[in-house]
Specification:
Helix content: 55-70%
Radius of gyration: 21 Å
Strand order of the largest sheet: 1-2
Protein name: 1,2-phenylacetyl-CoA epoxidase subunit A
Distance between the termini: 42 Å
Number of helices: 13
Number of strands: 2
Order of helices and strands: HHHHHHHHHHEEHHH
Keywords: Oxidoreductase
Organism: Streptantibioticus silvisoli
Strand content: under 5%
EC number: 1.14.13.149
Pfam families: PaaA_PaaC
Bound molecules: Phenylacetyl coenzyme A
Protein backbone atom coordinates (compact mmCIF):
# COMPACT_ATOMS: atom_id res chain seq x y z
CA UNK A 1 0.00 0.00 0.00
CA UNK A 2 0.93 3.68 -0.14
CA UNK A 3 2.58 3.68 3.30
CA UNK A 4 4.98 0.87 2.26
CA UNK A 5 5.57 2.50 -1.12
CA UNK A 6 6.42 5.80 0.55
CA UNK A 7 8.80 3.99 2.93
CA UNK A 8 10.52 2.23 0.00
CA UNK A 9 10.84 5.53 -1.87
CA UNK A 10 12.29 7.31 1.18
CA UNK A 11 14.77 4.47 1.74
CA UNK A 12 16.04 4.60 -1.86
CA UNK A 13 16.42 8.39 -1.75
CA UNK A 14 18.22 8.45 1.59
CA UNK A 15 20.57 5.63 0.50
CA UNK A 16 21.61 7.73 -2.52
CA UNK A 17 19.83 5.29 -4.83
CA UNK A 18 18.00 6.22 -8.00
CA UNK A 19 14.27 6.42 -8.57
CA UNK A 20 13.42 4.98 -12.00
CA UNK A 21 10.31 5.52 -14.15
CA UNK A 22 8.80 2.13 -13.18
CA UNK A 23 9.09 2.92 -9.43
CA UNK A 24 6.35 4.35 -7.27
CA UNK A 25 6.92 8.01 -6.45
CA UNK A 26 4.90 10.67 -4.61
CA UNK A 27 2.71 12.78 -6.91
CA UNK A 28 4.42 15.98 -5.73
CA UNK A 29 7.88 14.53 -6.54
CA UNK A 30 6.70 13.74 -10.05
CA UNK A 31 5.17 17.21 -10.45
CA UNK A 32 8.34 18.92 -9.23
CA UNK A 33 10.46 16.96 -11.66
CA UNK A 34 8.14 17.71 -14.56
CA UNK A 35 8.28 21.41 -13.67
CA UNK A 36 12.07 21.54 -13.35
CA UNK A 37 12.93 19.29 -16.31
CA UNK A 38 10.42 21.05 -18.59
CA UNK A 39 11.78 24.44 -17.55
CA UNK A 40 15.28 23.18 -18.22
CA UNK A 41 14.33 21.76 -21.65
CA UNK A 42 12.52 24.97 -22.61
CA UNK A 43 15.62 26.96 -21.58
CA UNK A 44 17.79 24.90 -23.90
CA UNK A 45 15.66 25.48 -26.98
CA UNK A 46 14.84 29.13 -26.26
CA UNK A 47 18.53 29.55 -25.39
CA UNK A 48 19.36 28.80 -29.03
CA UNK A 49 17.93 32.17 -30.12
CA UNK A 50 20.34 34.73 -28.61
CA UNK A 51 23.40 33.03 -30.10
CA UNK A 52 21.75 32.00 -33.38
CA UNK A 53 21.37 35.76 -33.89
CA UNK A 54 25.13 35.84 -34.61
CA UNK A 55 25.60 32.76 -36.83
CA UNK A 56 25.28 34.72 -40.06
CA UNK A 57 27.64 37.41 -38.78
CA UNK A 58 30.40 35.30 -37.21
CA UNK A 59 33.76 36.89 -38.00
CA UNK A 60 35.30 33.82 -39.64
CA UNK A 61 34.38 30.43 -41.05
CA UNK A 62 36.01 28.74 -38.06
CA UNK A 63 34.00 30.81 -35.56
CA UNK A 64 30.84 30.15 -37.54
CA UNK A 65 31.38 26.38 -37.56
CA UNK A 66 32.00 26.37 -33.80
CA UNK A 67 28.92 28.49 -33.09
CA UNK A 68 26.68 26.33 -35.28
CA UNK A 69 27.90 23.22 -33.45
CA UNK A 70 27.15 24.84 -30.09
CA UNK A 71 23.64 25.91 -31.05
CA UNK A 72 22.93 22.42 -32.42
CA UNK A 73 24.14 20.93 -29.12
CA UNK A 74 21.55 23.06 -27.35
CA UNK A 75 18.79 21.62 -29.54
CA UNK A 76 20.14 18.17 -28.62
CA UNK A 77 20.06 19.02 -24.90
CA UNK A 78 16.43 20.03 -25.31
CA UNK A 79 15.71 16.64 -26.88
CA UNK A 80 17.42 14.64 -24.08
CA UNK A 81 15.51 16.67 -21.51
CA UNK A 82 12.11 16.37 -23.19
CA UNK A 83 12.88 12.64 -23.39
CA UNK A 84 13.64 12.57 -19.65
CA UNK A 85 10.39 14.45 -18.92
CA UNK A 86 8.40 11.95 -21.00
CA UNK A 87 9.44 9.14 -18.64
CA UNK A 88 7.20 10.92 -16.10
CA UNK A 89 4.03 10.32 -18.16
CA UNK A 90 3.84 13.70 -19.84
CA UNK A 91 4.01 14.34 -23.54
CA UNK A 92 6.43 16.84 -25.08
CA UNK A 93 3.66 18.33 -27.21
CA UNK A 94 1.77 19.16 -24.06
CA UNK A 95 4.89 20.72 -22.45
CA UNK A 96 5.52 22.83 -25.55
CA UNK A 97 1.90 23.98 -25.57
CA UNK A 98 2.34 25.14 -21.97
CA UNK A 99 5.54 27.00 -22.84
CA UNK A 100 3.85 28.71 -25.78
CA UNK A 101 0.87 29.67 -23.61
CA UNK A 102 3.21 31.18 -20.99
CA UNK A 103 2.21 28.54 -18.40
CA UNK A 104 5.72 27.07 -17.98
CA UNK A 105 8.93 28.98 -17.49
CA UNK A 106 12.32 29.07 -19.15
CA UNK A 107 15.48 30.60 -17.69
CA UNK A 108 15.45 34.34 -17.09
CA UNK A 109 18.86 34.67 -18.76
CA UNK A 110 17.53 34.16 -22.29
CA UNK A 111 15.43 37.31 -22.13
CA UNK A 112 18.46 39.54 -22.66
CA UNK A 113 19.64 40.70 -26.11
CA UNK A 114 22.92 39.77 -27.84
CA UNK A 115 24.08 43.19 -29.01
CA UNK A 116 27.63 42.43 -30.23
CA UNK A 117 29.78 39.48 -31.29
CA UNK A 118 31.43 39.57 -27.84
CA UNK A 119 28.08 38.54 -26.33
CA UNK A 120 28.62 35.09 -27.86
CA UNK A 121 31.81 34.86 -25.80
CA UNK A 122 30.17 36.20 -22.63
CA UNK A 123 27.31 33.69 -22.97
CA UNK A 124 29.76 30.81 -23.34
CA UNK A 125 31.95 31.90 -20.46
CA UNK A 126 29.32 33.11 -17.99
CA UNK A 127 25.98 31.53 -18.98
CA UNK A 128 27.40 28.10 -19.77
CA UNK A 129 29.72 28.47 -16.78
CA UNK A 130 26.72 29.11 -14.50
CA UNK A 131 24.81 26.27 -16.17
CA UNK A 132 27.65 23.80 -15.46
CA UNK A 133 27.98 24.93 -11.85
CA UNK A 134 24.25 24.31 -11.39
CA UNK A 135 24.13 21.08 -13.42
CA UNK A 136 27.15 19.08 -12.24
CA UNK A 137 25.37 18.37 -8.92
CA UNK A 138 22.24 17.39 -10.89
CA UNK A 139 24.23 14.41 -12.25
CA UNK A 140 23.60 13.01 -8.73
CA UNK A 141 19.90 13.88 -8.74
CA UNK A 142 17.67 11.13 -7.28
CA UNK A 143 15.70 10.72 -10.52
CA UNK A 144 17.67 8.38 -12.80
CA UNK A 145 16.71 9.62 -16.30
CA UNK A 146 17.36 13.27 -15.37
CA UNK A 147 20.68 12.48 -13.68
CA UNK A 148 21.87 10.45 -16.68
CA UNK A 149 20.85 13.14 -19.18
CA UNK A 150 22.93 15.61 -17.15
CA UNK A 151 26.16 13.66 -17.56
CA UNK A 152 26.35 14.13 -21.29
CA UNK A 153 24.94 17.65 -21.17
CA UNK A 154 27.63 18.73 -18.70
CA UNK A 155 30.40 17.39 -20.96
CA UNK A 156 29.05 19.39 -23.88
CA UNK A 157 28.54 22.50 -21.73
CA UNK A 158 32.21 22.32 -20.74
CA UNK A 159 33.17 22.62 -24.39
CA UNK A 160 30.73 25.54 -24.72
CA UNK A 161 32.25 27.29 -21.74
CA UNK A 162 35.77 26.86 -23.12
CA UNK A 163 34.80 28.24 -26.52
CA UNK A 164 33.32 31.34 -24.85
CA UNK A 165 36.39 31.83 -22.70
CA UNK A 166 38.72 31.45 -25.69
CA UNK A 167 36.63 33.86 -27.79
CA UNK A 168 36.68 36.50 -25.04
CA UNK A 169 40.41 35.96 -24.51
CA UNK A 170 41.07 36.66 -28.20
CA UNK A 171 38.98 39.85 -28.08
CA UNK A 172 40.41 40.99 -24.77
CA UNK A 173 43.94 40.67 -26.18
CA UNK A 174 43.04 42.19 -29.54
CA UNK A 175 42.65 45.84 -30.51
CA UNK A 176 41.46 48.42 -27.93
CA UNK A 177 38.03 48.41 -29.62
CA UNK A 178 37.82 44.59 -29.33
CA UNK A 179 38.85 44.74 -25.69
CA UNK A 180 36.17 47.36 -25.01
CA UNK A 181 33.57 45.22 -26.76
CA UNK A 182 34.51 42.21 -24.59
CA UNK A 183 34.35 44.32 -21.41
CA UNK A 184 30.97 45.74 -22.37
CA UNK A 185 29.58 42.22 -22.90
CA UNK A 186 30.85 41.06 -19.50
CA UNK A 187 29.37 44.19 -17.89
CA UNK A 188 25.95 43.35 -19.32
CA UNK A 189 25.95 39.54 -18.71
CA UNK A 190 27.49 39.33 -15.23
CA UNK A 191 24.49 40.21 -13.06
CA UNK A 192 21.89 38.30 -15.12
CA UNK A 193 24.19 35.24 -14.90
CA UNK A 194 24.10 35.43 -11.10
CA UNK A 195 20.30 35.50 -11.29
CA UNK A 196 20.25 32.18 -13.19
CA UNK A 197 20.76 30.37 -9.86
CA UNK A 198 17.29 31.47 -8.77
CA UNK A 199 16.03 33.60 -5.88
CA UNK A 200 17.94 33.87 -2.59
CA UNK A 201 17.50 30.83 -0.34
CA UNK A 202 15.02 32.49 1.99
CA UNK A 203 12.76 33.25 -0.99
CA UNK A 204 13.21 29.97 -2.83
CA UNK A 205 9.85 28.25 -2.46
CA UNK A 206 10.91 24.82 -3.75
CA UNK A 207 14.45 24.41 -2.42
CA UNK A 208 13.77 22.79 0.93
CA UNK A 209 11.54 20.04 -0.46
CA UNK A 210 13.69 19.52 -3.57
CA UNK A 211 16.78 19.14 -1.40
CA UNK A 212 14.99 16.66 0.90
CA UNK A 213 14.12 14.63 -2.22
CA UNK A 214 17.72 14.98 -3.41
CA UNK A 215 16.64 16.52 -6.68
CA UNK A 216 18.63 19.63 -5.78
CA UNK A 217 21.89 18.90 -3.98
CA UNK A 218 22.92 22.46 -3.04
CA UNK A 219 20.96 25.62 -2.39
CA UNK A 220 20.67 28.48 -4.89
CA UNK A 221 22.95 30.75 -2.82
CA UNK A 222 25.60 28.03 -2.34
CA UNK A 223 25.88 27.47 -6.09
CA UNK A 224 25.87 31.21 -6.81
CA UNK A 225 28.77 31.68 -4.37
CA UNK A 226 30.67 28.78 -5.95
CA UNK A 227 30.22 30.39 -9.38
CA UNK A 228 31.49 33.79 -8.20
CA UNK A 229 34.59 32.14 -6.69
CA UNK A 230 35.27 30.29 -9.97
CA UNK A 231 34.84 33.42 -12.11
CA UNK A 232 37.10 35.84 -10.24
CA UNK A 233 40.45 34.25 -11.21
CA UNK A 234 39.15 33.50 -14.71
CA UNK A 235 38.25 37.19 -15.21
CA UNK A 236 41.75 38.08 -14.08
CA UNK A 237 43.41 35.83 -16.62
CA UNK A 238 41.04 37.13 -19.31
CA UNK A 239 42.15 40.66 -18.47
CA UNK A 240 38.52 41.71 -17.95
CA UNK A 241 36.88 43.29 -14.91
CA UNK A 242 33.73 42.01 -13.22
CA UNK A 243 31.31 44.95 -12.83
CA UNK A 244 30.97 44.82 -9.06
CA UNK A 245 32.80 47.35 -6.82
CA UNK A 246 31.90 45.27 -3.73
CA UNK A 247 33.58 42.11 -5.00
CA UNK A 248 36.45 41.17 -2.68
CA UNK A 249 38.05 38.16 -1.03
CA UNK A 250 36.79 37.51 2.47
CA UNK A 251 39.63 35.92 4.40
CA UNK A 252 37.41 34.79 7.26
CA UNK A 253 34.76 33.11 5.12
CA UNK A 254 37.25 31.84 2.57
CA UNK A 255 35.07 33.04 -0.33
CA UNK A 256 34.35 36.28 -2.14
CA UNK A 257 31.90 38.85 -0.88
CA UNK A 258 29.89 40.36 -3.68
CA UNK A 259 27.39 43.17 -4.19
CA UNK A 260 23.63 43.17 -3.87
CA UNK A 261 21.74 41.56 -6.77
CA UNK A 262 18.85 43.61 -8.17
CA UNK A 263 16.07 41.12 -7.44
CA UNK A 264 13.41 43.50 -8.72
CA UNK A 265 14.95 43.10 -12.20
CA UNK A 266 14.75 39.30 -11.81
CA UNK A 267 11.09 39.51 -10.76
CA UNK A 268 10.31 41.73 -13.75
CA UNK A 269 11.94 39.26 -16.15
CA UNK A 270 9.99 36.37 -14.55
CA UNK A 271 6.77 38.35 -14.98
CA UNK A 272 7.45 38.61 -18.71
CA UNK A 273 8.81 42.15 -18.68
CA UNK A 274 12.45 41.51 -19.55
CA UNK A 275 14.00 43.15 -22.63
CA UNK A 276 13.28 40.20 -24.98
CA UNK A 277 10.54 38.03 -23.38
CA UNK A 278 7.98 38.81 -26.06
CA UNK A 279 10.43 38.38 -28.95
CA UNK A 280 11.69 35.01 -27.60
CA UNK A 281 8.22 33.53 -27.18
CA UNK A 282 7.00 34.88 -30.54
CA UNK A 283 9.98 33.39 -32.34
CA UNK A 284 9.47 30.07 -30.49
CA UNK A 285 5.80 29.90 -31.48
CA UNK A 286 6.63 30.72 -35.09
CA UNK A 287 9.34 28.04 -35.19
CA UNK A 288 6.82 25.54 -33.80
CA UNK A 289 4.23 26.41 -36.45
CA UNK A 290 6.82 26.28 -39.23
CA UNK A 291 7.91 22.84 -38.01
CA UNK A 292 4.39 21.35 -38.12
CA UNK A 293 5.05 19.63 -41.45
CA UNK A 294 8.09 17.85 -39.98
CA UNK A 295 6.06 16.46 -37.06
CA UNK A 296 3.29 15.37 -39.46
CA UNK A 297 5.76 13.68 -41.80
CA UNK A 298 7.48 11.89 -38.90
CA UNK A 299 4.13 10.69 -37.55
CA UNK A 300 3.06 9.45 -41.01
CA UNK A 301 6.36 7.62 -41.40
CA UNK A 302 6.03 6.01 -37.95
CA UNK A 303 2.46 4.91 -38.72
CA UNK A 304 3.51 3.32 -42.04
CA UNK A 305 6.47 1.63 -40.38
CA UNK A 306 4.40 0.13 -37.57
CA UNK A 307 1.71 -1.02 -40.05
CA UNK A 308 4.44 -2.77 -42.06
CA UNK A 309 6.10 -4.44 -39.06
CA UNK A 310 2.78 -5.61 -37.59
CA UNK A 311 1.93 -7.56 -40.81
N1 LIG B 1 14.67 31.80 -14.48
O1 LIG B 1 12.06 27.79 -5.56
P1 LIG B 1 13.01 28.19 -6.64
C1 LIG B 1 20.94 26.35 -20.03
C2 LIG B 1 11.55 30.26 -10.70
S1 LIG B 1 21.02 26.63 -18.37
C3 LIG B 1 13.33 31.63 -14.47
O2 LIG B 1 14.41 28.47 -6.24
P2 LIG B 1 13.79 25.78 -8.05
C4 LIG B 1 22.22 26.05 -20.80
C5 LIG B 1 11.26 28.83 -10.33
O3 LIG B 1 10.93 28.05 -11.46
C6 LIG B 1 19.45 27.29 -17.80
N2 LIG B 1 12.64 31.17 -13.42
O4 LIG B 1 12.95 27.12 -7.84
C7 LIG B 1 22.38 26.92 -21.97
C8 LIG B 1 10.11 28.98 -9.38
O5 LIG B 1 8.94 29.24 -10.17
P3 LIG B 1 7.44 28.86 -9.65
C9 LIG B 1 18.47 26.23 -17.43
C10 LIG B 1 13.34 30.89 -12.31
O6 LIG B 1 13.24 25.11 -9.25
C11 LIG B 1 23.42 27.84 -22.00
C12 LIG B 1 10.44 30.26 -8.63
O7 LIG B 1 11.33 30.98 -9.50
N3 LIG B 1 18.92 25.44 -16.33
O8 LIG B 1 19.87 26.43 -20.47
C13 LIG B 1 14.73 31.03 -12.24
O9 LIG B 1 13.88 25.01 -6.80
C14 LIG B 1 23.61 28.69 -23.08
C15 LIG B 1 11.10 29.98 -7.27
O10 LIG B 1 12.45 29.49 -7.41
C16 LIG B 1 18.08 24.81 -15.51
O11 LIG B 1 16.89 24.90 -15.65
C17 LIG B 1 15.40 31.52 -13.37
N4 LIG B 1 16.72 31.72 -13.39
O12 LIG B 1 15.28 26.33 -8.38
C18 LIG B 1 21.54 26.86 -23.07
C19 LIG B 1 18.72 23.96 -14.44
N5 LIG B 1 15.12 30.65 -11.00
O13 LIG B 1 7.38 27.35 -9.54
C20 LIG B 1 21.70 27.71 -24.16
C21 LIG B 1 17.73 23.10 -13.69
C22 LIG B 1 14.02 30.31 -10.32
O14 LIG B 1 7.29 29.52 -8.31
C23 LIG B 1 22.75 28.64 -24.16
N6 LIG B 1 16.93 23.87 -12.79
N7 LIG B 1 12.95 30.45 -11.10
O15 LIG B 1 6.53 29.40 -10.72
C24 LIG B 1 17.28 24.17 -11.49
O16 LIG B 1 18.35 23.80 -11.03
C25 LIG B 1 16.28 24.92 -10.64
O17 LIG B 1 15.02 24.82 -11.25
C26 LIG B 1 16.66 26.40 -10.38
C27 LIG B 1 15.52 27.06 -9.57
C28 LIG B 1 17.93 26.47 -9.57
C29 LIG B 1 16.82 27.17 -11.68
Amino acid sequence: DTVDQQADFDAVVSAEGRIEPRDWMPDAYRATLVRQIAQHAHSEIIGMQPEANWITRAPSLRRKAILMAKVQDEAGHGLYLYGAAETLDVDRGELLDKLHAGRQRYSSIFNYPTLTWADVGAIGWLVDGAAITNQVPLCRCSYGPYARAMVRICKEESFHQRQGYELLHALSHGTPAQHAMAQDAVDRWWWPSLMMFGPPDDESSHSEQSMAWRIKRHSNDELRQRFVDICVPQAESLGLALPDPDLRWNEERGTHDFGEIDWSEFQQVLRGNGPCNEQRLDQRRTAHENGAWVREAAAAHAAKHSARTSD
